[in-house]
């Protein structure tokens, strides 16, 4: 039983998701705006490592309070197959969205001068309107999705989020080769790193509906254009991630759990 029950867990999810976005979207802004290095300093590896350690810090800070889901897809998966109370799902989702929105506010406050000077580009979320449309999406101008279709981005989000759940479940599975002591959050960060390095291109690897939608709403409010054009904002980073989370926990229990030692 948590000290302050659902109230404490709600605060933990807000704070954890705030940290995630402050550092995660922060590295996108820091590298993209590159105030000291100019635009050629853009580096995908810097961004994926930044997101990796954003997850590590957020999970370490709040895991003891709320379990550090910091992701609606994780919360849904835990409710579907790991006994997490369904009555907490919506409060957790609200907390995660609020934390993500506030994290985007933190990025805005810390990078305001660069964002304003460059016309408030999209450093908030994946998909159309991204500041790195040419480099990030592998295209040569034109559509920010480049050569990747909406369907491909959707499938990639499903797979990416499933991989995230596989890593989370394995890291804390005592019957598997679970991480000892308190190193679980570090492995979760490395899973995010692996997803970004290997599967990040087609969709931008949101793998977290709150991580994408909360900052997207904030970005639209402060003047970033194109964030809600079409259905991209709903399909890959929200529905695709939720499906991927559930698929991840089911496939882990289909292919791994029955074959583990007693």
Label this structure with key terms.
262 residues; mainly alpha; Glycerol uptake facilitator protein; 10 helices; 0% strand; globular
Q: Tell me the name of the CATH class.
A: Mainly Alpha
Number of helices: 10
Our Rg estimate from Cα atoms comes to 18 Å
Number of domains: 1
The structure class reads mainly alpha
- Sketch the major β-sheet: none
In CATH terms, the superfamily is Glycerol uptake facilitator protein
- Taken in chain order, the helices and strands follow as HHHHHHHHHH
The name CATH uses for the topology is Glycerol uptake facilitator protein
Q: Spans with pLDDT under 50 lasting ≥5 residues?
A: 131-145
**Morphology call:** globular
Fraction of residues in H or I helices: 55-70%
Looking at the overall shape, the CATH architecture is Up-down Bundle
- Rounded to the nearest angstrom, the distance between the terminal CA atoms is 27 Å
User: Mean pLDDT, nearest integer?
Assistant: 89
How big a fraction of the residues is strand? Answer: under 5%
Number of DSSP strands? 0
